[in-house]
Amino acid sequence: MVILSSQPKRRIIMSDLSPCPLCKSAYTYQMNDLLVCPECGHEWSADQKTEDLSVFVVKDSNGNILQNGDSVVTIKTLPVKGSSQSIKAGTKVRNIRLVDSDHNIDCKIDGFGAMALKSEFVKKA
Ligand SMILES: [Zn+2]
Is 19 helix (H, G, I), strand (E, B) or coil? Predict the structure, then answer.
């Protein structure tokens, strides 16, 4: 006979490990006194507070971390709001600026001017 409990045991994984302060990955693990992020390789002290929300990470379509001033290449043709033209796949974009928002790359593209791109549609050049 199977007894169904009205309050099934919830499996709670007791983890007080902080998410990665760089990429916000929850798959962090502890190694000695350090916390390690398997996603981006960041290591930090376990008792360090990670409340600095101004830290953000922008990754390209391959998961590479982008930095201000990097050059990227678009990986697909991107329609441009308010323009009949679109940005073709393979367009090189120089000197990007990272922004903590939905469209997380600010840049200038020849023929288009100032643009906001999503990092998932580019790769590091
Ligand atoms: Zn990380």
Answer: coil
How far is ligand 1, taken at its centre, from the CA of residue 8, in Å?
Answer: 34
13 Cα to the center of ligand 1, angstroms: 20
pLDDT in tens, 71-110: 999 999 999 888 888 999 999 999 999 998 889 999 999 8
Measured distance CA(64)–CA(48) in Å, rounded: 25
Ligand 1 mean position, distance from CA 29 (Å): 11
Among candidate residues 111, 110, 107, the one with its CA nearest the CA of residue 122: 107
37: burial class by Cβ within 10 Å (0-12, 13-18, 19+)? buried
Strand, coil or helix: what is 72? strand
